[in-house]
Amino acid sequence: MTAFDAFAPFGPSARPVLREVLAGHPEPLSWYSYTTLRLWHDVFHYRWRRLGDGTVLVATAPESEHGHHLLQPIGPFAADSRAAVLELADALPYPLRLYGVSDAFLREHGEWVAHFTVHLDRDMSEYLYRASDLAELPGRRYSYKRSLAARARQAATLTIEPLGAANLEACAEVLRRHDETTALPDANDWLAREGAARATAFCHFDELNLEGILIRADGEPAAFSVFEVQKGAVGVVHFERARREIPGLYQMVNQEAARVLVSRGCTLVNRQDDAGLPGLRQAKRSYHPSAMIDCYVLEYRGAPH
Prior knowledge:
The chain is an alpha+beta fold.
């Protein structure tokens, strides 16, 4: 037996539990929703367990790491739960890591965190924007983005439609055309992981309460965005692609997705992380995020001295 045998396979049974726990203990990082965890389950091989005080532990076994590790505990994380995680860490033959740890968790559990070394995970920190900024592209600092989006609208006859069962297959054509004209030799591993998560999204679109838009250019699929509303007024953009041979189409699909999220009552948009890819980092910075949601990794080092 291993320390993780008590964890159950991650699946639909986790959904009502996570909804209940997160309603009382919301988390700033977009990782912590059933939808996000389900999307990336096939990449990170999640398992889960609920402790006596209601705290939820999510185990992960990333291929790049030895053995199982944990995401940040979700919920009250009272004394018994804190002790249980330390007991689990002591039982492992390797240093336990906790991924996806927020600033708020570090502040609330500072004494317990002293059992770990703390590292800022810049590649997984998330970009938060004012929804109205992305939807309206106001002022001088967005003038170039407005110009590019307008250029796309002038380049072809564009139509926008909600994404759903009837047109999800059109996204495959967007991806094919995109990949033909995009070279990301430093990102193959990231693209493979994202591709697996995206496939889950398309297979379980309605079940996961996802939304999206599809843009057609002269009747042909040209761009799509997949998103959801999390935590009330925060929209989370999970996936986005556009054909690069139409200049400004990326700016347009970004803007149109934000407009839908504003219509859903969102005041903020989380466009997630940049995975450490320089081009993606530059693109996300160019939209002037209103805040970064820092993400940390903890590594167990035993009792503090």
